[in-house]
Specification:
Blueprint: H1 3-18, E1 24-42, E2 52-68, E3 73-86, E4 91-107, E5 111-124, E6 130-144, E7 150-160, E8 164-175, E9 179-190, H2 194-212, H3 215-221, H4 224-235, E10 239-255, E11 258-274, E12 281-299, E13 303-312, E14 322-323, H5 337-340, H6 346-349, E15 363-375, E16 378-389, E17 400-413, E18 417-428, H7 430-435, E19 442-452
Parallel strand pairs: 12-14
Antiparallel strand pairs: 1-2, 1-19, 2-3, 3-4, 4-5, 5-6, 6-7, 7-8, 8-9, 9-10, 10-11, 11-12, 12-13, 13-15, 15-16, 16-17, 17-18, 18-19
Length: 453
């Protein structure tokens, strides 16, 4: 947890304790989760490290409070405290995750307004652009726009990863029971080397692929001087600074029992890459697209089928003067969770799995999700996704990134107990086999037990 998160959380608790006379507990929740993950053929944390098998055991205490601080204001607090054991290292690590810690002030009738300040769960473009708990200030104005419609305006500032600010304004029109439409624009200043980290990883993979087929280069790099040159090459450039403008469209609608949703984001701007040597100073123009759509089709009373498509623009060059790779800020992709995110439960496996960073070449994905209510308290869901690159390098004669199947069974046992079983499988395609040092089928199995107090 960053110092910014700690400060906001401390201020929230002080506000709650400092107003005992006017404060009123409006809502609370408390639960304990135990999740056991089994991993097969996951890449090691270091670049080029062999694939690993392992077990991760996480025990979390999750809670939330909502305090009323008078007629107009509320204080929301929520997070997790836990211990995570990783058998690969034999270490047990404490985790503190703050999901929300914010003050909300709201009032009004015909034109109502709401102001929130603190750590909020932010989700933009269905999570494909941003899905994270970040320090945020937002103001929403809303009023009736007809007999059955509401119009709203949202203005917000978000500090992503504690260092990269995003300013955004969104206008929305909502028709209860029919759907909504939102248009928004934003300005993002990347101070966290987000694009640089992806570009450096891909360049390293392509260089290692070349080394496997060049004996002369292998002999050269076997020497200390050659190794130093390789390390220096992979380390250049060493810093980046970027400014992106964004425009987005977000919509959802329903026709009877059929529901649909779509999202589109366009971003444009400039990045500057600076190397350790003064002569490395590269300005890059960035233009990127993201779009997705999904239909939810009921089949009978218990089954729902949802076909979907996803497009994320890419570029065959890792870095040149013009880059058409879409830069996601802090996303969580719900479709192919192993390929895009590394796990279904990112809290337990944060930053331990990166696919091969081939998202830089763009992703075109399609598939379907099916969910069936086996019984009143038991449901089964499965998602199948096929992925291919949008703009693979011309030197590679392949586009297939692979395919993935994700499945989940949930069982609500009484009022307090819940059980879940997850199994995910990712089979790398020909493009990954050509680039990566190892292209093994990856699997994750997870068993979760939850008790709600």
């Amino acid at each position: 947890m960053s110092s910014t998160h700690r400060l906001i959380l401390a201020i929230g608790w002080l506000l709650a304790l400092a107003t005992p006379g006017g404060a009123q507990l409006l809502d609370r929740s408390l639960a304990i989760d135990n999740q056991l993950l089994g991993l097969h053929n996951f890449p090691g944390p270091a670049a080029g490290e062999a694939a690993q098998d392992g077990v991760v055991d996480g025990l979390y205490l999750s809670g939330g409070l909502v305090w009323g601080l008078g007629e107009w204001s509320e204080l929301h607090l929520g997070g997790d405290l836990g211990l995570v054991y990783d058998d690969a290292t034999g270490a047990t690590t404490p985790r503190t995750l703050v999901h929300r810690a914010y003050l909300q002030v709201a009032a009004g009738e015909a034109l109502d307004w709401r102001l929130r300040v603190g750590i909020l769960p932010e989700r933009i473009a269905h999570g494909l652009l941003l899905d994270s708990d970040e320090p945020t200030v937002d103001l929403r104005l809303r009023r009736a726009a007809g007999v059955a419609q509401e119009a709203s305006l949202l203005v917000q500032g978000v500090l992503i990863d504690g260092e990269s600010p995003l300013l955004r304004a969104m206008a929305s029109l909502d028709t209860p029971g029919r759907g909504h439409l939102s248009l928004w624009v934003g300005d993002y200043h990347d101070r966290g080397d987000r694009l640089l980290g992806q570009a450096t990883a891909v360049r390293g993979l392509l260089l290692r692929r070349r080394l496997k087929h060049d004996d002369r280069l292998q002999r050269l790099l076997a020497s200390p001087r050659g190794r130093a040159l390789l390390d220096e090459s992979l380390a250049e450039p060493v810093a980046s600074d970027g400014r992106l403008r964004l425009a987005g469209l977000d919509g959802a609608w329903s026709w009877g029992r059929v529901e649909g949703s779509a999202v589109a984001v366009y971003e444009w701007g400039d990045y500057r890459f600076r190397g350790a040597r003064k002569e490395v100073d590269l300005d890059v123009e960035v233009r990127g697209w993201l779009a997705s759509g999904e239909l939810r089709l009921p089949v009978g009373e218990r089954l729902v089928v949802a076909p979907f498509v996803l497009y994320q623009s890419g570029d065959e060059q890792v870095v040149d003067r013009r880059l058409t790779t879409f830069v996601a800020l802090a996303p969580f992709n719900p479709y192919a969770t192993l390929f895009f995110n590394g796990s279904l439960q990112r809290d337990f496996l944060a930053n331990t799995f990166q696919p091969v960073e081939l998202e830089n070449f763009g992703v075109v994905a399609g598939g379907g999700r099916a969910q069936v209510a086996v019984a009143e308290a038991v449901s089964v869901a499965a998602t199948a996704t096929y992925l291919r690159a949008d703009q693979p390098p011309a030197t590679l004669a392949a586009q297939a990134l692979g395919w993935e199947v994700d499945s989940r069974l949930t069982w609500q046992v009484g009022e307090r107990w819940a059980l879940a079983w997850e199994w995910d499988l990712f089979v790398p395609g020909e493009l990954i086999e050509q680039v990566a040092e190892e292209a093994n089928t990856m699997q994750m199995v997870a068993a979760t037990v939850r008790y709600e107090f």
